[in-house]
Amino acid sequence: MAAGGAARPLAARLAAALLPAGLIAGLFGVAPAVAQTADPIVSAIQERAADTRVTRSYTLSDLGIDGPVVLQGMDARRDLYLPVPAGVPLSDAAIALDGEYLRGDGGRTTLVLSVDGTPVYSRRLEGDSGSASATIAVDGKPRPTGFVRLGTAWSSVIGEYLCADERGIGNVLKISPKSRFTYSYEAGSVRDLATAWSGMPGSGSLLVAGGTLTKDTYDTAWRLGLALEAAGKRLVVKTLPAIGDEVDLSGLDVPASLRVVAPFSNFVGIGTYRIKDAADLGALLVLPGSPLGADVAVADAGLLTSIKSALDALGARLGPASAAFTEWRAKAASLGAVTVAADEVSLQSLAGRPVIAVGGAAGGKATALFDSFWRTSLASGAVTIRAVDAAPQKPSAVSLASLGPAEGNLDVLARGDFVVSFDLAAATGGHSLPSRLNLDVAAAPGASTSEPVVAVFLNDVLLAAKRLEATGHPEHLTAAVPPYALAARNVLRVTFQRQPVSDRCRETPQAFPVSVLPTSHFELGGAAPGGDFLGVIAAMASGGRLVVPDTYLASAKASLPRVVRAAAAAGVPARSSSFEVAGPGASFRAAGAFLALDVPVQGITPKARVEGDRLIVGTDDKARLLDISGLKNVALVQALRADEARGIVWQSIGPVAMTPEKPVRLSRGDVALVGVDGTLTELSASGAAPGTVRVADTDGPAGTLQRLWQKSSEWGLPLGIGAAALFFLLLIRASYVRRRGN
User: Fold this and answer.
1) Using the 8-state DSSP alphabet, how is residue 259 labeled?
2) How far apart are CA 644 and CA 641, in angstroms?
3) Distance between CA 595 and CA 646 in Å, rounded?
4) pLDDT tens for residues 360-389?
5) How would you classify the pairing of strands 415-423 and 397-399?
6) Pairing assessment for the beta strands 592-597 and 645-653 based on DSSP bridges
7) Could you tell me how far CA 672 lies from the centroid of its own chain?
8) Dist. CA 679–CA 666, nearest whole Å
9) How far apart are CA 225 and CA 200, in angstroms?
10) Which helix (H) or strand (E) covers residue 27, if one does?
11) Most confident stretch, 11-20, 69-78, 430-439
12) DSSP states along 339-401
């Protein structure tokens, strides 16, 4: 056998000079040259088809944490929630914490990191300053909640003695927003829509067809984008490129096995690439890490047809490897082989990762399906939406537990914060505004005789504070919610403070548990009838009109983020609002609640106007607040009100329309200048100072009695003296009557 095996190559070489290649293959089983060159392509495609991993990587800044997380004091703790696909095993998961510390007061400083409550890293920090960076591994167990909870704990002990003063300010830990979380998972583990939605990182990418979109497609796209932003995802809009368009490939890493296979070889080592033909586009649609990969896609007929044509062209280009490519295509880009009905939502794949395909006319129904109420029920890979409402009935209260992920139990040594963020329209269901906060808390007794204090802040406005008895039993705190404390996007913070030093230093200071109980809730029923931004947001809670010019439909990649962030700032509910497109140069008649972008409005007198790059605030020529030209990268936003209309008008200044990169906050004024980084200036062009809204008396008799009791220090002493005097007068009178009777 060995001799025969050695002689066969020699016979093949002799026959190669005398016989044709096809006859050689028949005699000796040797593949012709064409088949030999096709084998590496088939192997490369089969290797890609076998690799179904999806790798995600994002930073804290992608989650909306723009500034450093600062921990300071004797004992400070902060939990960070990192989104992962719910119930899916992870692999190669790691957190690269980027931080630094300052140690001006000396003493003992310690950093402890934990994952889901389990400590995994501890380090004692020394020196006046230095790096606190660390890389910690995260176990791969599934997270049913859809979050990895990263706990950070900072301890600073300055004194050498038990009762020393620990109030130094020089020991500080700063966690950079550049801290990164990286993990991988099997794409096949995502089997339903709820898991796919929870698996989105801090940003949510939305794919739409290229060119000019139809009205239904654009309507569905802005509603889905608003749902993503309401869920805490920063919207990234992607359009399918056409032949001749340039694509940014700076972050694309072509697998080594495909770098010698055309057209994948065209993408190696370049920053931008111009699409030459449909096969180029098809290659980008199946590559992992492709710039065309998306989390959600508006699967209208135009998008599906373009994807299918590009993948068919790529299969024809690969020739002998087409069979292997068909297998890869089914796993990496199934969106190009299916038909999605207009009212259907299904789970597909694109660029090697799961994508939620939404029918072109699903619009508000799909948005309502992905809100916090119905989302967890999507335990299927495809659904057809016939009807959906935000909730089975109009809510009269909103539980704090339903507003977002937050740990209700805290161990507090000196101070601890319970923080939850919520979108106003999404939280209230578009029915009314919060009117009162009812907070139920419980605190365990501590070693100190000083009672702990709880304080409640809404958007950094102090609503109420109270000393707790700290007996371990539930305690109630209630506070009216003033209109000026509300915004389209809100942050509620409950702060607990304890006295960390025990009586006469008989015990070592230690943390004791406190809890925000699940019965805590907002009461609904408030309203703000003013003509400022907050008044429009209140009027918009039950739905409004969104109006855009027809030019927006031809520039979806640039205009959709602008529309979504303007709608989020105005509190436009995605489910219950209508969508209108104004023709070239057309205006619309103001009625009801509305948001208009770059469309003239009739029936309302503006408080400011734009003329090219010129901004004029104040309609009276003799009393203008501002008249300036040469502005760029800004937009004028104003709240307008008439008899039957109340709305917000958004006007771009200059030849190029600006799109904010950060959320826009509108609340206390009626005219604002908005830039790339959000709201630049907010004022009241009507003359009233922003924020001078009087708190309405919505407490009723119970609230009146509570306020009287809170002011008892003012009337308690005079009342007590008067009561005592009356008592003595009654005693004297009784004595006199008794003597006279005798």
Assistant:
1) T
2) 8
3) 9
4) 888 777 777 776 666 666 666 666 665 666
5) unpaired
6) parallel
7) 24
8) 8
9) 13
10) helix 21-28
11) 69-78
12) ---TTEEEEEEETTEEEEEEETT-HHHHHHHTSTTTGGG--SSEEE-S---SSSS--SEEEGG
DSSP 694: P
Amino acid at the residue 367: T
The residue whose two tokens read 């003296």 is 721
Q: State the CB neighbour count (10 A cutoff) for residue 409.
A: 12
pLDDT beyond 80 at 638: yes
Taking the C-alpha atoms of residue 524 and residue 466, their distance in angstroms, rounded to an integer, is 23
User: Checking DSSP bridges between strand 588-589 and strand 601-602, what pairing results, if any?
Assistant: parallel
Between β-strands 203-208 and 234-239, what pairing exists: parallel, antiparallel or unpaired? Answer: parallel
Per-residue pLDDT, 17:
40
Q: Quick one: tokens of 119?
A: 């400590």
Lowest-confidence range among 72-81, 170-179, 273-282? Answer: 72-81
pLDDT reading at 22 higher than 50: no
DSSP labels for 575-629?
TT-EEEEE-TT--EE--EEEEEES--EESS--SEEEETTEEEE-S-TTS-SEEEE
Instruction: Pick the more confident residue, 256 or 507.
Output: 256
Q: How far is CA 459 from the centre of its chain?
A: 17
Sign of CA dihedral 305, 308, 312, 314: positive
DSSP state of 86: B
- pLDDT band with cut points at 50, 70 and 90 for residue 165: low
Q: What is the DSSP secondary-structure string of 472-494? A: SS-EEEEEE--GGG--SEEEEEE
Q: Respond yes or no on whether the N-terminal peptide bond of residue 263 is cis (omega within 30° of 0).
A: yes
More confident residue, 1 or 733: 733
Alpha-carbon gap, residue 299 to 340, rounded angstroms: 6
Distances (CA, A) of 450 to 275, 447, 470, 669, 704: 70, 9, 10, 42, 29
Of the candidates 419, 425, 423, 389, the one whose C-alpha atom is nearest the C-alpha of residue 405 is 419
Q: Report the 10 Å Cβ neighbour count for 127.
A: 9
Q: pTM for this structure?
A: 0.76
Neighbours of 737 (CB within 10 A): 10
Return the structure tokens found at 474: 């539930």
Using DSSP bridges, classify how beta strands 608-611 and 453-458 pair: parallel, antiparallel or unpaired.
Answer: unpaired
**Burial grade of 715 (CB within 10 A; 0-12, 13-18, 19 or more):** exposed
Q: Which helix (H) or strand (E) holds 44?
A: helix 33-50
- 370 vs 319 pLDDT, higher one: 319
The upper half-sphere exposure of residue 63, i.e. CA atoms within 13 Å in the direction of its Cβ, equals 22
- What percent of the chain is modeled with pLDDT above 90? 33
Which tokens in the block code for residue 195? 């898991």
For residues 608-618, give the mean pLDDT. 83
What pLDDT sits at residue 242?
92
Strands (E), 126-214: 129-131, 134-137, 147-157, 171-175, 180-186, 203-208
- Alpha carbons within 13 angstroms on the beta-carbon side of residue 561 total 23
Which phi and psi angles does 96 have, rounded to 5°? -100, 95
Tell the burial category of 402 from Cβ atoms under 10 Å away from its Cβ (0-12, 13-18, 19+).
middle
Average pLDDT over residues 223-232: 86
Q: What angle do CA 588, 592, 593 make, to 5 degrees?
A: 90
Return d(Cα 348, Cα 368) in angstroms, integer.
Answer: 20
Instruction: Provide Rg for the chain, Cα atoms.
Output: 33
For residue 274, CA distances in Å to 266, 281, 290, 308, 548 come to: 10, 10, 15, 20, 31
Quick check: 24 and 11 in contact, CB under 8 A? no
The pLDDT of residue 35 is above 50 = no
H/E run at residue 228: helix 215-230
Provide the 8-state DSSP code for 162: T
Residue-level pLDDT at 25: 40
What whole-number distance in Å separates Cα of residue 488 and Cα of residue 567?
10
Angstrom distance (rounded) from CA 664 to CA 673: 10
Beta carbons of 547 and 211 less than 8 angstroms apart:
no
**Tokens standing for 416?**
């601890």
